[in-house]
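Write out this protein's structure.
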Amino acid sequence: VTALFFFFFSLLKHYGYRNTMDKIKMQKDKLLKGIAALLLFTMICVPLKAQRYGTCVGLRGGNNGVGITVQHRVLPRTTIEPILNFNLNSASLTVLPQYHIPIIGKWFNYYVGAGPHLGYNYTLGFYGGATAIAGLEWKLPILRIQFSFDVKPAFHLYHPDNKYIGWHTGVSLRYVAISHRDLKKQERANR
């Protein structure tokens, strides 16, 4: 996570101060390629561990726009969640390692975490910093559906509009792409 944070900060430092339209278009292309590479890295290189679900994919909506969310289990009670968020003014990528604590069984829990974010405001340029998260998650026992509600404050190290704190809330609806049962089948097949 620390390496990702420094990677994002170096991109921000290197590309965040240019103002011409051609350079901004080039920055957008590089940002989108970086986001795609990070999502692929997160999905492919992180090993699966057996839990109630392995990977969930879905949509997140909230007071700062809509986005795509992928929650991937990496350790018992630990997930990593990249969130690609869009609104009328900007696009951002947040990568959040999260620790899950059961409330009622293995299906209803709360989670906390923190990680880096990097965004691009369409008129002002790049911004970046750290984001915390706290939320509730409910996996429907029979269906492959998961709901969550979270609070996600963002602390910007650099923002062209001099906004240093953003307070975001959101609701996510995810489809369980890799379930606990799928992971068990894969384990048995590998023996």
